[in-house]
Amino acid sequence: MLAAGGTGVLALLAAWVYSAESPASDPSPLLAASETGEAERPLVSEQATPPPKPPDPFKKTVTPFLAAYCDKCHGPDTDNGGLRFDKYRSTADVQADRKTWAKAMQYLELGAMPPPDHDKQPDAKARESVVKYLDKTLFDIDCDIVRDPGRVTIRRLNRAEYNNTIRDLLGVDFEPAKNFPSDDVGEGFDNIGDVLSVSPLLVEKYLDAAEQVAAKAIVPVDPFTSRNRKFTGGQFNKNLGVNAQGSSFGI
């Protein structure tokens, strides 16, 4: 019995050693690739390739225009006004210097540049194409890119808005804000949050206005007046007596 068992164990060990040392006669390519890690890498044809970048319109529209009409006065040889257009080579360069190119666009629209006495003048189509490019490049906004506009200032009501709000909410038509300090003005408007400050004096005026508004909005009623009547003990035993807690009395 032990001999038979020992023979079986030896047979199993021999089979295990043979299978470990002898490779399969025809291994599966997929299995072999997975063991080496090559199966996890996609084929070259299956790899996602980024789409080609569209050509920069600056090189197609602006570069030839500058070479033909601008470089003579604003190029590597001459920099009238300290301006050289040859250093701008892409749309990114234009966007990095918006002030200069906004002025250039304005001069192109007015026909002031190239100057009238320049030996070469662009036709209307060439001038318009550059102006359209600059307008789109400088002033178009991609809302998908600009996701964070920054902080927004908490804005208070100016005097006119305060008066209108009290009127609309409480139905009281007067000017509670007439004694408020003057509202600051920014860019020609008196309702810009960045310039509407809250001073200690304004807070005091808010409290005074609140008292005035409350006095006009809350209509007082006539105060309740009590009447005092005196009765003698004998009057409680007259006619129309009623029974209350076992006692007979009446008024």
The rounded Rg comes to 46 Å
How many extended strands?
A: 2
Number of helices: 9
Low-confidence stretches: 1-25, 29-34
Q: Indicate the proportion of strand residues.
A: under 5%
What is the chains' assembly state? single chain
Give, in order, the helices and strands: HHHHHHHHHEE
Q: What's the overall geometry?
A: rod-shaped
What is the mean predicted local confidence, pLDDT?
Answer: 78
Characterize the main sheet.
2 strands, antiparallel
Architecture overview:
The chain is an all-alpha fold. Among the domains are: 83 residues, no CATH class; 59 residues, no CATH class. Helices cover 44% and strands 2% of the residues. A two-stranded antiparallel ribbon has the order 1-2.
Question: How are the secondary structure elements laid out?
Answer:
Blueprint: H1 2-21, H2 29-36, H3 57-69, H4 71-74, H5 91-96, H6 98-110, H7 124-139, H8 159-170, H9 200-217, E1 242-244, E2 247-249
Antiparallel strand pairs: 1-2
What's a concise summary of this model?
The protein is 44% helix and 2% strand. It is mainly α and 251 residues long. Among the domains are: 57-139, no CATH class; 159-217, no CATH class.
Which keywords apply here?
disordered N terminus; 9 helices; mainly alpha; single chain; 251 residues; 2 strands
